[in-house]
Amino acid sequence: MIGEKEPELDLTDTEQLQKVLKALASPIRIAILQFLHNGPSCVTLPCIKLGISQPNLSKHLQILREAGLINCRTKGTQHCYFICRPTLMGPLFGLLEQKHTYRPCSKPEQHE
């Protein structure tokens, strides 16, 4: 959390990179990251704010944890989640805010 050293993320490790890309491939998981970007949260609040069930949220949180993007602290019976790589989130959210236009590839020129 705040003041802790951010753990290393080895994106040269193919398996780790696949986990990160899989985690970022879901709009729900992006919404969870955006929610947690505002600060740590226990499971109940994201369920209400994002309009998803607790089991569904737990599944997405597990994928984000396996990717090394978030972590969890237990307080009694509650699990509080937080982003453990805040320096990665700024560029990620900047990329997501850009407008991307789909342009189909043109047919390759045929040479005779």
UniProtKB/TrEMBL annotation:
Residue ranges of domain HTH arsR-type in the record: 9-103
InterPro entries documented for this protein: ArsR-like_HTH, HTH_ArsR_DNA-bd_dom, Metal_resp_trans_reg, WH-like_DNA-bd_sf, WH_DNA-bd_sf
Superkingdom, taxonomy of origin: Bacteria
Keywords for this protein: DNA-binding, Transcription, Transcription regulation
The UniProt record lists the keyword Magnesium: no
One Pfam family named in its UniProt record: HTH_5
Organism: Victivallis vadensis
Record's protein name: ArsR family transcriptional regulator
GO molecular function: DNA binding; DNA-binding transcription factor activity
